[in-house]
Amino acid sequence: MRLWFFLIPSISVTLLTPRICRCGRCTTPCVTPLCRLKGRLCCSEAGNTFALVENVRAAEAALAKYEPEYRPIHVQVRQLQAEVRRLGLEIEERNQDLTRESRSDSLSETEIKDLEQRIVAHEAEKQTAQDRIPDDWEAARKRYVELATASKKASAILS
Known about the structure:
Blueprint: H1 2-7, H2 9-16, E1 19-20, E2 29-30, H3 33-38, H4 43-46, H5 49-103, H6 109-131, H7 137-158
Antiparallel strand pairs: 1-2
Helix pairs in contact: 5-6, 5-7
C-alpha cells in the first residue's frame, strides 16, 4: 500500500485530505475515495450503496425481461423502415430519370409511361411497407427507451 502512495502522491494526499463533496448536495467533509475520485456517489448516498445496487439490478432485470418481447418487433420494424428508405431512393431515381427523359431531344413516350408506371408501383410498395409497421411500435419503442434510460441512469450513479 505504501508503494501505491509513493507512485501516485497527488491521489494519496487527496485521499487523506477531507474536502467538500463534488455533488454539491452535502456540506460535510468527504473522506470517501469514491466521491473524490469519481464525483458521482456523494457522502450522503454512500450509506445507500446496497439500495443503489439493488436499483441497478432491478432496472437491468426489467430491461432484460422486456427485451424478448421487444426484439422481434424491433427487427421487423427496422427491416420495414429500411425497405421504405430503399423504395424512397428508388422513387427519387425514377423521378430523375423521368425528368432527364422529358428534357432529352429524343422524347420517347413509351419510356416516359414506363417510368411513370414504375414510380406509381414503387409508391404503392412504399405505402404497403409503411402500413405493415405494427400499430403498437411507437408505444413499444417508448417503453424500451424508458427502461434502457432508467438502467443507464441507475448504473451511472455507481460508476
